[in-house]
Amino acid sequence: MRIATWNVNSVRARTARVVDWLKRTGTDVLAMQEIKCRPEQFPSEPFRAAGYELAVHGLDQWNGVAFASRLPLEDQRIGFEGMPGYAKPGGEPRPEARALGVVVEGIELWSLYVPNGRALGDPHFAYKLDWLAALDAATRHRLAQQPGLPLALMGDWNVAPREEDMGDPSFVPGASTHVSPQERAAFQAILDGGLVDVVRPYAPTGYTFWDYKNLRFPRNEGMRIDFILGSQAFAEQVVDGRIDRAERKGDAPSDHVPVLVDLDPELGGAEGYDEDDDRPMIF
Asked: Would you say the pTM of this structure is higher than 0.85?
């Protein structure tokens, strides 16, 4: 099974490119972020014509997460337990379309679009840290319920967790988001909760995002912020992983590229997914 994640930066603007990539690479399941549309606006027909069914969560022209899969998508869940909404100063928290879970062949998969943070000290930065803390708590609770669960958190994390993951000179440690000690600690806490970066062993170097401005891609001034983090039962099934850097080339690319893993389910001895559990959903 081939599973991938990709911040497509507007699925309506890049439908043909994404569908062509799916067919060329033989990807079975794609988690998408920043689709920038509501479910009724999603360009479903080209995906379905290519043999993919869809799960889509979008509330407006911002954010949005989705799955396209050649395998049945089961138990679709919007939001994880305790996921906060964003509150502007003086306002009430409002939900955002940043998390969507599905089950494929007994594997629990999440498409995640972590808040950007905007700037240190910005209310959105505090929201980002709260969001990551809630994700950590929800994941720990989930794995405590089912220690042998094959689970993967996939998406755009908006954190460059290691020094070698940041090559954009406009991001300065101690002064910028994505590289702050708080964000890196939040990312590490999720790993410490029982997850593994399943791509890095196969692709130890390389970026997944290059800004459109200032010739960042030709200069290779990018950052590694898109990850697939898997539970031990998921990691045991991974036989290969890569970053598809070539997808940053060509006409009208996304500023992110796909990140992929290949799984051999016969290698896993996991308990599998329990469809009778009683996890809450957040809408």
From this structure: yes
